[in-house]
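Dear Dr. V.,

Thank you for agreeing to look over these. As mentioned in my earlier message, I'm a first-year student in the group and I'm still getting used to reading structure tokens, so any feedback on how I've presented them would be very welcome. I ran two proteins. I've put each sequence directly above its structure. The first is here:
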Amino acid sequence: MNEYLVVVLLLKILNMSIEIGQKAPAFTLVDTARKEVNLSDFNGKNVLLLFFPLAFTGVCTTELCSVRDNINMYEKVNAQVLGISVDSPFTLGKFKEEQKYNFPLLSDFNKTVSKTYGAFYETFLGMNGIAKRSAFVIDKTGVVRYAEVLEDAHGLPNFEAINALLATL
């Protein structure tokens, strides 16, 4: 059994979330063009993973628009931003188009990556299986350097801390 499967199985068994200093679990998701995107596609770059509950909702739109408007800062620190939700690639495509997001949105429709990263509500607002608003910084070597999983979907990740950390990597 490969290392990735062992990590995923242990996380599921122990119901643990991702911890700073561990190797980020690999994943493959589809983007808004329905093309596969692997975490490993960004080896050699820092990655900011932003899990968000649902497209077209107020706080999610505010969060992602803020990132969109500051994309130059992320590019300057060699960081790739990836937005992830359980919405379909079709819904995310419309959301990306309407909001003119300049970074990939990835569909975790089957909810596997959200669960693996501990960014998952079993039930939220009467809906089963929604991603928790979360932020993870993965460095150029694939190690998690920042992990924040919010229990309150109305809050935002601590972008000051995220941006300060990215400036040092």
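The second protein is here, in the same arrangement:
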Amino acid sequence: MGRILPTVLLLIASNAFMTFAWYYHVKQKGWALVTAIVVSWLIALPEYILQVPANRLGHLEHGGPMTLPQLKIVQEAITLVVFSVFSVLVAKEKLRANDAVAFGLIFLAVVVSFWGRKG
């Protein structure tokens, strides 16, 4: 459990940057496409600076507790939490019940991925 928390915290931080890089420009009606691309790339750079160490720290081959599929599934679940917060607070868009059910199914995938995994 010692490397799971730092891995998850780095993934949360990296996903915050990536969510802004992917979606913030959508609400910026005055931005030209080129501006949106350049700003998104500048926001995405810190995402990679956080994502790479998170994956290395969390992966089995670097002393972490997770396989690559487990890292990816955890990252996707984190992405949904970060995106949900972004969608409501920044984009001012409400999540529907269908969205919550779909997100719940992905969280269930995290549980399924870790079933039977020996410490």
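From my reading of the second output: The mean pLDDT is 92. Residues 21 and 40 are 4 Å apart (CA to CA). Does that match how you would interpret it?

Kind regards,
E.
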